[in-house]
Amino acid sequence: xxxxxxxxxxxxxxxxxxxxxxxxxxxxxxxxxxxxxxxxxxxxxxxxxxxxxxxxxxxxxxxxxxxxxxxxxxxxxxxxxxxxxxxxxxxxxxxxxxxxxxxxxxxxxxxxxxxxxxxxxxxxxxxxxxxxxxxxxxxxxxxxxxxxxxxxxxxxxxxxxxxxxxxxxxxxxxxxxxxxxxxxxxxxxxxxxxxxxxxxxxxxxxxxxxxxxxxxxxxxxxxxxxxxxxxxxxxxxxxxxxxxxxxxxxxxxxxxxxxxxxxxxxxxxxxxxxxxxxxxxxx
Length: 283
Known about the structure:
The chain is mainly α. Helices cover about 65% and strands about 0% of the residues. It has one domain: Triphosphoribosyl-dephospho-CoA protein, CATH 1.10.4200. The protein has 14 helices and no strands. The longest helix has 20 residues. The radius of gyration is 18 Å and the shape is globular. It starts with 8 loop residues before the first helix and ends with a helix.
């Protein structure tokens, strides 16, 4: 992985906000974006969420768990609902890695260090954040129930949940969806179109096609996820075939409306998109 210079807190704040705003400007069928609200949430809810969490998520004096809990708390106070739990869970370790990175280290090396040093306190704070955010499909089937006080590290808690949650899977597998697939997909799209917003849509479609979206899986099950992946694959092929993504905007928005009418929100794929954009800016 490419080595890069250590970034300042101000640069990290800008990278975080840019990742959030680029993802919101991209058409992401089924998810909230600049072209269409959905699922009882508006784009303004997400803009406010990014604004109130930026200074918290990059605060070098906070642990990973503290960043996540305080950011979720600030989000609840600002918009009164869960707009960003998954994204915060993914971004906090990436930012922690960037804050502790030396010039001769790669972001991935530092991310592995961050993940290995997560504590029981981090797990307890994240469990509190999850309960506070109350994400759709939250149950008590996990080996380490978030409604109980965890006695394992955050990494161990995520390892136990990785088969049911793709965000937990990132913790358990060194963020490979992001660091291997996502960053490469976004870079290829930037070469193809030289447009961050169009490239973010390509990235989102790539995540939708690559793995079942576990936010959808928790609500609707495997069969619908497989249908969603096939629909995404068809849309992704059409998208990459065009020299100008504006020419397929009508099809994307039509699919977006159809997904929202069915109550389908691929939130995990959107969270992975934000985190990949962030990581791409930091490598």
